[in-house]
């Protein structure tokens, strides 16, 4: 009996049968799964997967870098698609021991990275046609954004992650914020360091941004007024004109299928500021 | 002159009560252990697996992984870490004759924290060969090395002419802790977003990373330290009278200090290395037991090991199931449940326990 079952299973595995209990880990990966029309194959998601609304109704297996091995196994996934850096490694090792296919999707902060993500997710889900279609669609949007961005004068934009105790936490090189600012045809005002770091007041003044870019988080306190009232920001062109743009965090920094749109929105918002 | 009748002394003899407590705690530990194997997000039942195994049926791969690769090593790790932290706390409080003492005082926690942060932030700078050899053990190994290094430095600083000054150790520990904190701060500044997340989670502690390989590395040390601890009991009892008095009644005080500090560094260093920062167990468990069975270290140390193990296993069960399929860092559970409970005990026993 067991042998018959094993043969049946082996035969099934040989067929191009699609995984239909998929766990998606990472906000942009989940967005791509839905954009490919495979949302109904998802059984669970991680904490960072908050778009589209339907994703929120799925069970949450925890933060992307702190997945609990038993929690992941409890949703009985037959495929896990995770963004780069999902972990911890102990959990990934146990999932391999449990023979659950695990696909890691490379990350990156430009248009090519978005297309690569879409291709990788489509391959993992065995949906080549849908993947190609979505890829072409996103490629067209990226091209449109790029040509629109090329026409706009490059403005200096300061991305402010948060204000803690009066210190501005800004985005430097190699960040999603830096990537989206570049795609919108603008210039990151801070290029001295990598990642997100606090800026001294003098560095803020020297960065001389024409506009401030921030995220809006639901339920979180609105920091826009606080940022514009910040003494160092007030010395900058952005502070004097009150040029501040706020956008949804995952939309702005997710580098998923909506990124071309987000860059376009950002570009327009920056143009509107100048009036 | 007051004549004390044998009946009255019997009333103050807490040994029978302590022995009963030991039995009860051992039973509690057994119960909690079985409980922790039976609950979890995956819904795997050890009884069903046992029945399958007895009937000679094949055990499903998922069930096997959940039971033998996830829950069992976690249970063993929880028991050892809980026992290590609680016994270390009891030994430190006895050694420093201070109810607030915890393993942090000998620099273990600060050093281990610095080691872990260094491994998380600077791990990418390691030579590729070494990084590959260490794999995800880089953080536990660095935490353990950091904990030991800071304890040895502290011991060397506070020992002059073969005599260790507990007071110097306390003060030097504060200075060394501040230094480790500053170095950690520099590393935190250098860290990127993902590393900061990792640091935060490490500080909150978790048994989620328990694997047999980690257990094989850390368990011998924790077991050795736990086995050494009861031998310190008489000496710690003598030390309660003060160092001079302890010397007079024939206790080798210097050797006691050295062994106690090494025991604590070994047990706590290994525990912190594999589970991150789990606060509260080391300070609360000994106090609860002192209220119940008195301060005699002969009973206190054994009972602390049992209660520490049982409480940490229970806290881990809560951490695993409360927001399943995700899980909570265990440090949050120990502090949110333990803090108010400990306060309640203190308020009720305010008269008895004059801190």
Average of pLDDT of chain A: 88
DSSP helix fraction of chain A: 40-55%
Helix content of chain B: over 70%
Which second-level CATH architecture of the largest domain in chain A applies?
3-Layer(aba) Sandwich
CATH topology of chain B: ABC transporter involved in vitamin B12 uptake, BtuC
Q: Approximately what portion of the residues of chain A adopt beta-strand conformation?
A: 15-25%
Order of helices and strands of chain B: HHHHHHHEEHHHHHHHHH
Following the backbone from N to C, one meets helices and strands of chain A in this order, namely HEHEHHEHEHHEEHEEHEHHHEHH
CATH superfamily of chain B: ABC transporter involved in vitamin B12 uptake, BtuC
CATH architecture of chain B: Orthogonal Bundle
Mean pLDDT of chain B: 87
Q: Kindly report the name of the CATH homologous superfamily of the largest domain in chain A.
A: Nitrogenase molybdenum iron protein domain
Shape of chain A: globular
Overall CATH class of chain B? Mainly Alpha
Q: Which strand order do you get reading across the main beta sheet of chain B?
A: 1-2
Residue ranges of chain A: pLDDT <50 for 5 or more in a row? none
Most extensive chain-chain interface: A-B, 33 and 31 residues
Keywords (chain A): Signal
Pfam families (chain A): Peripla_BP_2
Domain Fe/B12 periplasmic-binding (chain A): 21-274
Protein name (chain A): Iron complex transport system substrate-binding protein
